[in-house]
Amino acid sequence: MNSLVSTVRGLLTFSKSETSNYSPSDETKHDSKVLSVAWNQEWSGFIVGTNRGFNVYRCNPIIKKSIIRDPHESGFKIAEMLFLSNLFALVGNGHNSSEYPPNKVFFWDDHRNKCFCELEFKSEVLAVKLTRQHIVVVLKQNIYLYSFDNLKVHSLIATVMNPKGLCCVSHVETKSVLACPGFRMGQVQVHDLKRNIIKLIKAHDSDIACMTLTLDGSMLATASTKGTLIRVFNVLDGTLLQELRRGMEKAEIYSIAISWNLKWVAVSSDKGTLHVFRLRPDILSFNHVPSSSFIRGMLPNYLNDNERSFAQFSLPVSTKFIVGFGSEHTVLLVGIDGSFRRCRFDKEEGGQMVELEHKRFFSLQETDETMVVTNTTAT
């Protein structure tokens, strides 16, 4: 395992000959079905779990297929990638007779084209998150945190019933933050893993439905099962920084993303509209406001007013999309229907976004180019 971690940090080369024995005719023999989609830690690529295996795509500057793996017929319901490295975490699709059952996490080294390690649990695995320091495995009421270098349990975190497997982690090496549901409805617990500090935040009155951290772990955005409001909190002291209004009708929030520069929040839901919100320029200046003032309800007046979205884009209502941010005020969307979209918003005027790219990722040909990763540090 140690050698793998050092490899991930170094120079990795994926070429077509190394990463696939796939031929274009294979895709016509068996229809691939998307079981899951997940961005990597910096939105430079995404991984698709299918009923046959998994595919990996890069999307900078345009979307390209990089890796195709069909190791087993049952496929993977969870697939996660670590930046643009050779390492992937996989969870099987749930067939009892499968060699990839849903209570195990398999670690695939694509440099060696095989699974090299597995973690087994007594119940179904609902989510997996990867950082350079940790492996996070989410069960219904527990979260196991493993050290990446030796696969030993770092900590065991108890949560309220968590059927969606909600959990998010930071990806800047100088900080190590994990957020997950707390011990009662609407509560979030935030763990500063380096300082061994736990902060409990009363985020909503209803159950948490979606959450995300900024890449540096400084801010947390949450939505409840009502889906009408997105709240942004300061992770340091749990204070409410901004409240965003998605709509008045109940909605299922699929995905939330906060841009690298901490200026924008993107939200997708089952209402078929992508919303982009502007974060206030002075939002981080409230980091040093004593949390006691918020506890007493003495919020600045404008924090009591929720804000409408700055930019919007229409999406198919029937499809779940996860969101990420690209360059030059673009939002990236990957759909469970097998589609990829890149949209741009006007940073001054907002309004309706412009679609720059729309492709079916299963139909893409695998790139002949060599993918070289020289630095996977998030910025």
UniProtKB/TrEMBL annotation:
Transmembrane segments: none annotated. InterPro entries: PROPPIN, WD40/YVTN_repeat-like_dom_sf, WD40_repeat_dom_sf, WD40_rpt. SUPFAM superfamilies: WD40 repeat-like. It is a peripheral membrane protein. It comes from the Eukaryota. Pfam families: PROPPIN (PF21032). Keywords: Repeat, WD repeat. SMART domains: WD40 (SM00320). It is found in: Preautophagosomal structure membrane. One of its GO terms (cellular component) is phagophore assembly site membrane. Belongs to the WD repeat PROPPIN family. This is Autophagy-related protein 18e.
